[in-house]
Design brief:
Layout: H1 2-19, H2 30-42, H3 46-51, H4 62-81, E1 85-95, E2 101-110, E3 115-125, E4 128-131
Antiparallel strand pairs: 1-2, 2-3, 3-4
């Protein structure tokens, strides 16, 4: 019986991961998408992080993907050098009147005590929020 409960838990977790992956639904908030991006980078899951980015209908070449992976790796290196993100707080989330663009300001606190305020611009692509590369 215990094995059956474990199997159910695993299935629930797998389904949850699929439902809340970076593609997000149309009801997700812009700040949620930023959170997914940063958590993917922290884990070194660069393909998942790239899925959170606005591509504006463009397909990345292998060379572009390699460059983007390198940039994401550098970002992970900075986060790691500060002993990871211990907390984050959404300072402001502003969605445009037409509902197609948004700005999110987040305060990060790192394991070494450093704090950082970051601003992200987002756009809706195929009904899902995506973080614009800056």
């Amino acid at each position: 019986m215990k094995n059956m409960e474990k199997i159910k838990i695993v299935w629930v977790l797998m389904i949850s991961a699929l439902l809340f992956s970076c593609g997000g639904g149309s009801d997700s908030k812009p700040a949620d998408q930023v959170d997914k991006l940063i958590k993917s980078i922290e884990k070194g899951e660069y393909d998942a992080a790239i899925d959170c980015l606005a591509m504006e209908g463009k397909t990345l070449t292998d060379e572009e993907k390699n460059k983007l992976n390198a940039m994401l790796g550098m970002t992970k290196g900075v986060i790691d050098s500060k002993k990871g993100i211990t907390s984050s707080e959404v300072i402001e989330e502003t969605i445009s009147e037409d509902g197609n663009t948004a700005t999110v300001k987040i305060k990060y606190v790192y394991g070494n005590g450093d704090e950082d305020n970051s601003e992200y611009n987002l756009v809706k692509e195929d009904g899902a929020w995506k973080v614009k590369m800056q």
